[in-house]
């Protein structure tokens, strides 16, 4: 996915987002995602939530859409600047998420969740580079290897006189 959220986290009781630096004896060393980039210790008593593990509820009760996928959809639709902020009205926030993720569960996703989403997207789009897909990367439906994949042309060119070929 274009935004790499694996090392980014939200910490309970602390505003903003943080990049995980390394584990420490009594918690984890983090660096704030802002202009100062200050390092601090997030104690083990605080809940640290990795953004890559957060999902948004959908109308299918067994499914969620990962935050990485939601950020990708937002980027495709709006780029780095959002039409709403965390201070926008409830109607604006609800319609924004409805445009980006029409299948989200309106009963289980609260206004505070949408406000966090817009705030986090603003921080991530400012401080994390968006990686465009390159030609060297395989497409999602393209096999990573040709091992075991035999094309029709290969099957047609198999000599019929070969004793190992059975039909």
Radius of gyration: 23 Å
SS elements, strand count: 7
Helical stretch tally: 4
Largest sheet: 5 strands, antiparallel
Percent range for β-strand residues: 15-25%
Which H/E pattern describes the elements? EEEEEEEHHHH
CATH architecture of the largest domain: Orthogonal Bundle
Q: Which consecutive residue ranges, at least 5 long each, have pLDDT under 50? A: none
CATH C-level class of the largest domain is Mainly Alpha
Write the layout of secondary structure elements.
Layout: E1 8-11, E2 18-24, E3 27-32, E4 39-43, E5 48-50, E6 55-57, E7 64-66, H1 67-78, H2 90-100, H3 111-127, H4 152-156
Antiparallel strand pairs: 1-2, 1-5, 2-3, 3-4, 6-7
Characterise this structure.
The radius of gyration is 23 Å and the shape is globular. The strands form two sheets. It has a five-stranded antiparallel sheet with strand order 4-3-2-1-5, with no helix packed on it. A two-stranded antiparallel sheet has the order 6-7. The model has no long low-confidence stretch (mean pLDDT 80). The chain contains four helices and seven strands; from the N terminus they run βββββββαααα. It has helices at 67-78, 90-100, 111-127, 152-156, and strands at residues 8-11, 18-24, 27-32, 39-43, 48-50, 55-57, 64-66. It folds into two domains: 8-51, Roll (SH3 type barrels), CATH 2.30.30; 54-127, Orthogonal Bundle (Arc Repressor Mutant, subunit A). Strand 1 (8-11) and strand 2 (18-24) form a beta hairpin. It is of the alpha+beta class.
